[in-house]
Amino acid sequence: MNALSVNHLLGIKYLTPEDIEIIFESADEFKEVLNRPIKKVPSLRDTTIVNLFYENSTRTRISFELAEKRLSADIIHFSASGSSVKKGETLLDTVNNILAMKVDMVVMRHPSAGAPVFLSKHIDASIINAGDGTHEHPTQALLDAFSIREKLGTVKGKKVAIIGDIRHSRVALSNIFCLKKLGAEVMVAGPPTLIPMFIESLGVQVEYNVRKALEWCDVANVLRIQLERQEIQYFPSLREYAMYFGINKKLLDDIGKEILIMHPGPINRGVEITSDVADSKYSIILDQVENGVAIRMAVLYLLSGRR
Length: 307
Ligand code: CP
What we know:
Structural class: alpha/beta
Order of helices and strands: HEHEHEHEHEHEEHEHHEHH
Shape: globular
Number of helices: 11
Number of strands: 9
CATH architecture of the largest domain: 3-Layer(aba) Sandwich
CATH superfamily of the largest domain: Aspartate/ornithine carbamoyltransferase
Distance between the termini: 14 Å
Strand content: 5-15%
Bound molecules: phosphoric acid mono(formamide)ester
Number of domains: 2
Helix content: 25-40%
Largest sheet: 5 strands, parallel
């Protein structure tokens, strides 16, 4: 079996291009399993996984749970609300108490950037980052790149525009790392206030005119405006954002070329993307969700092999 170079999935930053290819090849096999009448394999029988969610999630949490069940793992769910975190228990104490019950792997979503890296330095279990603050969301980037590969045959050489709230997006940073490692050309586009300074140092182009970004790209990955992370106002109103930076059918019709439309979800319909684009034949948003299960099965399986 091809092995990953890492014991944890803390971020795409720590993966080699070969690691990403190994994950994709494994996900190809798991996707085939998921399309069989019997979708379950015994690969992680006798492995116990805790899903530790300190932040809300729909897709990532359900997708990991399904991936773990398809691999026959034993699973425990933990959410900060309703736990002793509310009584002041630290992250490390919480995890050490869970691990004392003989847990092998930790899938973790946390509002603080760096929380999974911190844990990985203090505990023995494999850690999988399911999104840490505004830092990284590695399995999202893997499933995004896997979906591009599936639809366009390859990621290498493709022009991908990441459009929207780049400043607050962990999906943006993980996508930039992943796409660049796989040889894509990457552009970020949106209002200047939502694009971090010096982002060009990551090897991406910057465009403040969304129409120009769409004219340039093969793939548009449209990101959610993360109002919950915006401590100050970065643009005058949602209506104005939609007018100047939102993706709508008229804009795409005017440009008149086929662009693959992606969005990690959840969608603010009518803000960063209109329903007639999100639900159009060019949208692969639900394919991304479907591929998330195969990608997460691959990551769990390959990391379990490192233990
Ligand atoms: N894409 C994503 O991370 O969605 P959730 O926040 O619902 O998990």
